[in-house]
Amino acid sequence: MKKFFVANLFFLVTLNILIKSFWILGIDRGVQNAVDAESYGMYFVILNFTYLFNIILDFGIANYNNRTIAQNPHLLRKYFGSIVPLKMLLSVVYMLIVLVAGWLNGYSSHMVIMLFWLCVTQVLSSFVSYFRSILTALFLFKTDSVISVLDRSLLILICSFFLWNARLRESFCIDYFVYIQVLTMFVTCMTAMIICLVKTGRIRLKFNKPLTVLIIREGWPYAMLGLLMACYNRLDSVMLTALLDDGGRSAAIYASGFRLVDSANMVSLLFSVILLPLFSRMIKEKTSVEPIVSTAWNLVLLMSVCFIFVSVVYSTELMTLMYNKHISESADIYRILAFCFLPISVTYVFGTLLTANGSMKALNIIAFAGMVMNIVLNLLFIPKWQQNGAALTSLVTQSLTAFMQMAYAFRLFKLRLTRTYLCKIVLFLLLNVIIYVALHKIDILWIFRVLISLMLSLLSAFATKLFSLRDVKQMLS
């Protein structure tokens, strides 16, 4: 099972890193540089505004479906035929509520039009998430991996045509970017649906009231968790525009620092894609989850330490590479937000374990505490420190909620954390401090220093025995 997890995770992460790295450095950066900061700040705020209402779109259906089908594959056709009509109904309700909320929030006619098309993108994305939950529940992880990067691949192709043509780049605006996203997400949605239909056979769509009521009742805790997490993950930029009257400048700077961290978080999210059905099956079969948890945690720790050290030491260089506006301010934000990567990655391991176990009450209590903490700290910090206050709020909230999830999972599953292992972690961190500080003083091109540092970080993980050659051989054999 450990080999199965690592092999599929490696394929999924590699594919996503290749595509999304090109997307971040080549396309998303190009869009942000091609349009003015205020326009991108407006887009960023509206996009996060649509996320706040995603509870209506999904209602916990994707996670509930993933866990249920992984444990009971024979229910797939029955659930598929009833869930699709339900999601269509929820999509209409979502569109109406978000548009009315945007109008009541004082959005201009242009902003409402952009809000409409971003809502369409969210609806399509919700269907893609549902179809992907079917693929992962059936352990079709490689197929899911391809679907996970299809929209970004199409975006790269189309946006490249506009951004790398001098004449077209001059007329490129943020609205074009929104329309292209709608198109690529539609193609991805249709592709995912066709693959699911091939796997499931002919499906008869029918609004089954008893089953719909059951799905809503069972999916409600997952929906509530999604809403609460969306609030403390996405409220920062919305509250920046609400509390500061600067034309969206702070939100744009925050978006610059947040973009790379958010993209890195997508890699951590891939852990949960594989872990949720895997944990669900193992818990039902009463198989110990500790070996998979240990492997996932070690991988997350290595990945997080590398990302955080590179981000802190080379924040200015990275922001200079990506943007041509607000470099210093964006670097300040990025240094704070980079530390969020570790607690968010922890959540994708231990939060996923608790989700697979059905421990939704505990997760919702923790998430509610995180939402309240996020709102209170933003109200205190944003007026005083602007975008830096929002970043600090995010770090505090993410860290405390991750710690609570981890502590609860350790107690519930009786996981062990030995003194020897803690010493290994401390030694690993100290070695990395020495590596990054020492190499930062060497007079060579900074990108070479980063690559050398990453290689030495990997070697330090083996030197401290967080990983061993025997483990690698067992996974590859």
From TrEMBL:
Pfam families: Polysacc_synt (PF01943). Coiled coil: none annotated. Its main location: membrane. It is found in: Cell membrane. InterPro entries: Poly_Biosynth_Transport (IPR050833), Polysacc_synth (IPR002797). It is a multi-pass membrane protein. The chain crosses the membrane at residues 5-25, 40-62, 83-104, 110-131, 143-164, 176-198, 219-244, 264-283, 295-314, 334-355, 362-383, 389-409, 421-439, 445-467. Keywords: Cell membrane, Membrane, Transmembrane, Transmembrane helix. It comes from the Bacteria. The keyword Ubl conjugation does not apply. GO terms for cellular component: plasma membrane. This is Oligosaccharide flippase family protein. It comes from Candidatus Onthomorpha intestinigallinarum.
